[in-house]
Amino acid sequence: MAASNIHKLGALIAAIVALAIGLLQSPLSRQYPIFHWLVHLDHSLIGMLPAFTPTNSWRYTNEQLQTADLRGQVALITGANSGIGFEISKALSRQGATVVLGCRSPQRCFKAADDIRSDELYSGASVTPLLMDVSNLTKVQQAAKIFLRNNDKLDMLFLNAGIFTDEDNLLSVDGIETTFATNVVGHHLLYRMLEPLLLNSTMARVVSTSSLAGLVWVPKDIQIPTTVKELNDWKPPLVFNWSPDFIQPFYKYGRSKLAQVAWSKALTRRLGENSSVYVNAAHPGAVATPLTKNKNHPPNIPDFVQNWRATLVNNVCWSSEEGALTELYLGVAMDELKEKQVRGRYFHPQSIEVTNSHAESVELQENVWQLSEGLVEKFL
């Protein structure tokens, strides 16, 4: 009798899970508040997926974006040739901003520029490729010098480029753990070199693309070290019986994303509450991109499985345009940023402010800043 009840309970749980997955991947999850209650259980879930939002309403909309007049303003976006970075670049160009595309690949960078110019809503504003590899401090320095030579102002800086690598103990050409070097240190150098232009802007906006991983993919006692040796030697704690080779790349990615939020807070404190530079960070949510759809799938996986997976991603995740909207809010909604003094904050999709408890540590913020400053000092 007991075994029969266990089987019935197992069948019931399986049915509930199947129903939840079915509802989640259904278009209904976007139209009705099926899962909205979950965000009250865990605040960090807000905006992770369209289903995980308090309401279906956006606090900053495409309609508001389309009323923005950005003529005469200059924007630099890293990681601009695809995904969130491309959507940000295209949207800013549509509103008349001069856009500089920071990309590592020449072919992809020039193609992205051509795609923006051929957009039916293209404003005619300048779109310029700028070759930049943020994992390489010498190349960041070179790109920044080119930008300074060709531009006498900068109003918006989107620190968007980033990587996730599953190669353990991989170091950049500068001897820095690669994920941290790319997501944090390279952007720190770029900001420091362009800071004079930002300070001269009437109202400059700096936006860092972070992630929920900075809260959930880090140990509870996470700290950011102040030396590159400690950074490189860090061995995250094991989780359950998972292999270190499996879990460590996730923790290192999470550490870098936490550092981005902490960095924005450290910089905000240095600039002061009356600064004309507004620095914030945002998580775009789980976004349907060519990477998540995995178009170039392994040959041993049937096409119908990959097609189902792509459909699932499209239904469950945000589109790239939706994922970019919160960062565009932080870059474009100047009146609201000034009125509400939006500085050193962290946002999830639908422009909802969220707290990353780890990033609230002033010690951690200062460690991120001091570590980054020490690593780029000789390039300044």
TrEMBL record:
The keyword NADP applies. GO terms for molecular function: oxidoreductase activity. Belongs to the short-chain dehydrogenases/reductases (SDR) family. InterPro entries: NAD(P)-bd_dom_sf (IPR036291), SDR_fam (IPR002347). Keywords: NADP, Oxidoreductase. It comes from the Eukaryota. Transmembrane segments: none annotated. The keyword Oxidoreductase applies. Pfam families: adh_short. It comes from Skeletonema marinoi. This is Retinol dehydrogenase-related protein. PANTHER family: RETINOL DEHYDROGENASE, WW DOMAIN-CONTAINING OXIDOREDUCTASE.
